Amino acid sequence: MTPSEKQSSQQNTGILVIVTLSTVPLIMVLGNSMLIPVLPTIQSSLHISQLQVSLLITLFSIPAGVVIPLAGILSDRFGRKKVIAPALLLYGAGGVISGLSALWTGGGYWLMLTGRILQGIGAAGTAPIAMALVSDLYKKDERSRALGIIEAANGMGKVVSPILGSLIALLSWVAIFFAFPVLCIPAALAVWFLIKEPKQEKEPPPLSQYRDQLLKTWKRQGRWLLVAFLAGALTLFILFGVLFYLSDFLEKRYGLDGVLKGLVLAIPLLAMSSVSYWAGSHIDQKTRLMKRLIIIGLLAIAAGMGIVPFVTNTYLLIGLLVLIGIGSGLILPCLNTMITSAVASEERGIVTSLYGSVRFLGVALGPPTFGALSAMKTGLFLGNAAAAGLTALLALWFIRQPERLRGKGGQSRILIRKNRLRQV
Questions:
Q1: Mean pLDDT confidence for 13-27
Q2: pTM: predicted TM-score of the whole model, two decimal places
């Protein structure tokens, strides 16, 4: 093989790897977003309340949020692929159970929830572990771009999923659940066979030592990590809560249903996905820029949420939701890069997974909260606007750690520079 052929082969392998890894968060996000446009249809078909139908979202996200730290520990100790591939298969199996429950029992709500819980447990081992694997595979100069692509894939999943869910629902809303194994099985095989996971430079420490290392990391960086976790959870809490509110609003006020409603729901999500890709391509390892974009994003969300209660024009309402989507797109890739790059590789799985947990909990709590408090629209939106503004102030005050991003092997940037100087 000539040098040019070898280089071409490496580039193709690199493209296959990032495409494969991008499918993992894309499939994960389908678990909730694909159902959002058909939730009113499911509610009427099963004769259940708005709170009960929102549990199809909540009981996917809460188990995921609870199990993610365990998935992170397992991935640190046994490898990322050994967690991601089985998790995708479990995710697909849960979809089969939820779909069969509707076919066999004429709408078995409780068995359907059981399938959603299993899907949530499977989802715990997907996107958060894929983020850790990206950080293992890519050097610091390439990592932010790769993580931006991953977040953009996550956002693109949110864009495509309302449309895809609406299209599949033209056959039957039950068919949506059977789409999961069709997507998950090829993705699991691709992760297993196409990605060559790097060997860990150090043996995983005993669990007691692992806990001590994690506590040291948290003592050293806990304050800004807490603010970063809060920013990620709040962003997704607001985003999914607003999407749930908008889905119900479009159907009740305009009778909008099916693909047309899916297209409208995709507008703010497309804004988020596009901005996520742009941010990931420009932030590199510039933590001051990341901090700035996080604050701007939170203020954009605060502004959008603060104005929504006083708007009656639907086009202006969608414009404000686009503003919220833009704010989310600025925040999430910056948080991904800062959090995954702030710790050593042997701790990356658990720290990234803890971050994934709070993201899932934000997604889980958004729809039922907005559904339960929809009658108090003004207080609901203004309260979230205030929360976003306060989080922006906390980010301004506490996120001030430009020296703590780490390279591929987990060394801090300062330590890398010192080592280079010693070699000279």
A1: 84
A2: 0.70
